[in-house]
Structures are given as structure tokens and as C-alpha cells.
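Re-running the complex after MR caught last week's input typo. The corrected sequence lines follow. Everything else is unchanged.
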Amino acid sequence: MKFGGTSVGDVDRIRNVAAHVKREVDAGHQVAVVVSAMSGETNRLVGLTRDVARLHDAREYDVVVSAGEQISVGLLAMALQDIGVAARSWLGWQMSVKTSDVHGAARIEMIEPDAMEAQFSEGRVAVIAGFQGVSSANRITTLGRGGSDTSAVAIAAALKADRCDIYTDVDGVYTTDPRMVPAAKKMDRVSYEEMLEMASLGAKVLQTRSVELAMAHNVRLQVRSSFDAPDAPDASANGEAIVGTLICDEDEIMETEIVSGIAYARNEAKVTLREVADRPGIAASIFGPLAEAAVNVDMIVQNMSADGKTTDVTFTVSQDELERALAVLKGATADLTFADLQAAPDMAKISIVGVGMRSHAGVAQKMFQVLAEKGINIHVISTSEIKVSVLIDADYVELAVRALHAAYGLDDELAG
Amino acid sequence: MKFGGTSVGDVDRIRNVAAHVKREVDAGHQVAVVVSAMSGETNRLVGLTRDVARLHDAREYDVVVSAGEQISVGLLAMALQDIGVAARSWLGWQMSVKTSDVHGAARIEMIEPDAMEAQFSEGRVAVIAGFQGVSSANRITTLGRGGSDTSAVAIAAALKADRCDIYTDVDGVYTTDPRMVPAAKKMDRVSYEEMLEMASLGAKVLQTRSVELAMAHNVRLQVRSSFDAPDAPDASANGEAIVGTLICDEDEIMETEIVSGIAYARNEAKVTLREVADRPGIAASIFGPLAEAAVNVDMIVQNMSADGKTTDVTFTVSQDELERALAVLKGATADLTFADLQAAPDMAKISIVGVGMRSHAGVAQKMFQVLAEKGINIHVISTSEIKVSVLIDADYVELAVRALHAAYGLDDELAG
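Corrected-run output:
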């Protein structure tokens, strides 16, 4: 079980988390709980480090910031004991969660759960500080943004857990953003691959890295709401009840939709280089400098020109990186010759995602047709095995997402 | 160097501490700094543990509360780096400070400073979390109230430090309370034994335990103010300059006063048992039940009666434990027979302290004479090798302390 900062934001919420844990213990499970710092605490600590020194040693930053999770685990262990559940806290260095030495953004390398497993057999819940580990130099490390989800998945993998339940402020993963499309349905199951495509495309329920890790170690992930009544019985008394959305191997999903969900991302910008001299290494001369300037390039399309001597290159960046991208390209003109540099802000990316696409033809064609019927112009197309993304004018996002959601049969009939 | 919670209470004060450390580093010293949690932080964390559960697991309490020092050390290490002083933080488990398993009030058993010493040779300041250690079960322990002073002394002993400077909100140890006697002088040097007698008698500059530990390991302790300008040059450029008060072995004190200081404690109460049957074990039958009830008994006097069959026993307790003491004695009358139980609140204890007493006769006599001249009645007398304590009515505290301070030649001639 993993609870984020909002779920442990104050003493009452910590008690609520304890009640969730008790329900699972009462159902006969051995439970490890990973928690984040109380909401606001990490920001407070980060603020202190900024006030003390503008340039700070990442190792000392980790010492300060990891105190937030240390406080949470102690408090949750106490709250569990208070309702009669045996529990003890575990810090990154106690488990131990061995990580790389990249402080502030460390990667988990190995987890040694032996000491913790011994406690399970004594019926004790393990309350584990997320977001932290210990380096080979015996210093505290933190995993960087969203690291607690990753901690939870890595620990679930090390413990060979039956499931890793991520408690959040939403009750599951939807076929698209329910604030935009009221007919959006909560998915019972979704494959790792689909979740990865949707997470990186804007359905920000889980950190991408945690889903990748879950896929690599085949950890079954469940997203569910920490605001549900903790003592409500699960939907099915017989076998496993999925309350939220289960993210799992596609083999476990009996009936797959061709398209599982529609994702979107606003604040995209398009950059086009016209009549670039077409020679080997041209892509590197464009995207090398951009990578060095830490500009994140997403979609890339290259078309040969009619004469075969020049080419047009189009790519997308997030809108707030557009100016930086243009400055880099203008500064790199010695290596790079082109006739024109065109930029278009206020774009949006719409993606249809589904593992069923692999075995179905005409899925992309249907998307283009739906958008054409609504008079929506497609600027860039990019495809992968299980998704099709298009870049359109940001004004048409809602219209496009709703039309596609309906066209692929995702509307909830009850809600619709 | 050791800095308490007030000295690291906010970011500006942490910077001030860093400047104090830099001065010592610039003077060519290898420096270890022990710090407490930012003032208010420990109380905040203790409050959270109380809110979560009334009865809490001391092991989890230690996990939560020790986060306070963890935050301080990270911030101070950053502040030092920011002014060009190489530094790194050390937590109890990293050093490691091995303690007993008595969570919340653990005792230091062993310190392994090897890893830290290696860093000194690289010119790096060690910033050490006070108040915390690690148990044999690899759990975080805390040392209990005032534990940071004890940490500092234990670490100074393990490092074989030349000196352990305790920075506080006073600039040294005075011959008596300067708020009561304006002519009180700051002592340059005072012996461990004298300091122990004064600390336990109300001159609350240092924790008794830390002075005991310093004496046992011959750690030279200096008490000085953290509010002094950190970049002021020390008084003597040649050799060691004592800025505050040095607490050291009496061999190091060339010219000892016969009486070094006058201590006092208000809020004392006197209890007298009249005509107690005088038989072996009578003291145990009185003080055994009091100890069991956690009543702290201070002075004890027993006088044989004229007939040799009964005895009068008088002892003192702190005023807020008086009622409890009386209840215990009344409840214990089965084992204990006495004619009368008398109690007197509103007493005060005055003590003259000095290692010079050992070799000088008539020191106590002078005390009695001075008090008699002022018409002050002495209720109880208790003596040790280096101190004489008397119990008087609380109303006369100021008069007694001032008269004794002058009589033993302690008044500052400039101030006086």
C-alpha cells in the first residue's frame, strides 16, 4: 500500500490511512505501507535549504528533505499501534534500499528485504519511508519527484507482493479526463504499456518511472482513492476485488478494447525548419544542440522535399521551452543551414492508446476521419505500436477528445 | 563546538553559527560541530506524536523526534559550504553513536569516529546531529532532555578533542546568579567537581550528565555565548584564549579561590518525622517508598534523640513533590512508626562551592556566622568535601546569597 502526501497531510488523515491498513490486515494480508512526507512538509524543507544557500550540496539537501518521510513513518506506525495493529517504521538505510549516488534523483539498485520479511512472519506491518534510500557511501539519497510511487513498486517487487495499491486523490484511471468528458469511464484493468503511453501523455495518475518498473518486475499495480471509507467491504467477497484500476500484464486482461483511452496534452508548440540541406547527420545537428540545452523534444517528423536535395523537419516542444529552442537553433546556424524557421505555439497533442491496435487495421484511419468530419486540421502525426498521436490547434482539444471518445465506443452508456 | 536549538533557531542564526565555525577553521583547527534541532521544532514533533496516539512506542517517538536534528545538520552543512568551508553532516547511525536500547533516554555506549576522522584529514568540518544515536537493533535512539550537550562531550572524548565549546545564551559561568547579584563575576576557569555541585544546585548552564561525562573522560569544556560577534578576534593571540568559562581538571586551575561560587535553589520543602523508632533499616523504610513513588529526595539529616530510642529524620524535596511525599509516608505507616509528621514549604537551599575547602578549615563556620549576623535561621545543614549547603526560609534567599558572595570575596571590584 502506498499513500501520498495528501493522504497523510494531518493527524486525522494519518488515522484514516491506519484504518485502510487495518482493513487489509484484518483480511489476512501481510502488509507493507510506503508513505510520503505530510503534504507541505517537503516544500517547507526545500524552502529552508533554498534560504540557507542558493547553491546547495545535493547530499545535504537529501539529509534535510528525507526528514519529511521519517516523520510520517513514525507517526503512522504509532497510529497503527494505537488501533491494535502491530507495526514498525523502516527508513531507507534500515531496509536497506540501496541506490545510486545521484543525490536528489537517485535510482534504486537493490533492496534487501530480509530483516523486514522476518517481521512479517511475526505479524507486524512494515511502515516504509518512500522517496529515500542509502548510497554506497552510506549517505541518505532521495529518488526525485514522484519517487514514493517508485519506492512502492520497487519494494513490492523485492517482497514479491501480490499487489501494489497506490492510494491517490482519484479513484482510478479513466478512459480520458473526466473533467473534460463527463461520459469518461473508469477502467477496471489497463495494461502497463497502455498506462505508460497515457501517463507520459498527460493522464498524471502515476509516475512514468513507477509504471516502467512495475512492468519490468511484473508488479500488479492498483490505483485507488484514499478518500474511500476505509472500512467499506470490497466489492467482491470471493477472490480479488478491484476497487480502482488494476495496471497489469495484458495477458491478464481478457477482453481488450481496440482503443482503451484518449490522452491529451496542452501547451505544445511546433517548430518547423524549411529546406534543410539533406545530408547524413542532419538530425543530430538539429537535436544535439537542443538536447544539450535540455530542451525536451517530443514528436519529430521529417519529409523529403520534391527535389530530393532538401528536407523539412518538424518537431514539438512544450510551449514554455519554445523560446529556448528557437534561440538554440538560431545560434547553431554554422553547422545547420535552412531556408526558414517557423514556430507555432498553442498546439495540443491528442493520442489514442490501446494494445488492441496491434491486431486491428484502420484504427488510425478512423481517427483522421473523425477529426476531418469536425473540421480539425492535423499538423503532425506520430505513431507507435499501441498509440497514434496527432498535433492540432489547442482550441479544438475538447471537441477532438469528446468526438474520439464517442467514436471508439468509450462513452459510459449509463452516464452518456 | 556545540550549538543549541536557539542558536540554530532560524536561517539567519544558522548562518551566524557557520561564521563561528569558520573562525575556528581559519585559526587552523579541525572542527566537529554538534547541533540541536531548530528551536520549536522538537516541540512541534513531540506535539504530533501526542496527537496521533496518547500512548506511543518510544522507538517510533525517536524516529519522529530525531528528524529535527537531521534537518539542522543538513542546513548547517549547506551554510558552511556557502561561505567556503568544506563540511558534511553526520547522523547518529552514520558516525556511529552506539547507544543502549532505552528509547527516549538512551545512554551512549560507544562512538566509532574512524570514518569521521578520515574526513578531518581532508579538511572537512563534521556537522553532527546531537541528541541521537543508534541501538544494537539498528533503530534510531534519542538521549533524552539536554542530550545534545552529552552528545557533544561524548564525541569530543571519542575524538580526543583539545576542547569542547558549548555555545549557549549566556557568556559563561558566574560566581552566582548575576540577575540576583549584580556584582557576580564570570569565572575564567572552574573545576568539574565545582561545576557539578553548581549545576545540580540550580546554575543551569550545562546538563549535569554532560559535566560528569567530561570529568570521566577529561574533556575540557568551555561555555561561551553564541551571540558574541563570530568574527571578533579572541582575547589572546598567543596561546589559548578563554572567552567564556573553561570547565576543566582542578590541576589546570593555578589560583583557586576557597569558595568559587554561591548556588541556590528555590522551591524546596522540608519534611520532618519526629520520634521515629530507631532501629536498623529505618532509613530504607522511609526512603524506599519515596523512591518507588519517584519522589526526588535531596538533603537528608538524622539526629539521635536524647533517650537513644527514637530519632528525628528530616529531608528535603522539591515543593511540587511535597504533597506526594506526604501521602506516601502516611500510607506507609504500617512499617513505619513516628510521633509526628511535619512539613514546611517555601524553603530555599544555599550552597557555597569550592575545591579550596578541602585544604581550608573554618569555611563552613564563616557561612554560619554570616547568616547569623543577618538573622537568618538555618533549618538543615548538609556538607560534602567541596560544598556546604544550608536550608533557609525562601524569603531570605537574596539577602543570604549577596552577603555570602561579598563575605567570600567574590564581588567584582569594578562592578561592586
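None of the earlier attempt is carried over here. The first helix of chain A runs from residue 11 to 26. The longest strand of chain A covers residues 261-277.
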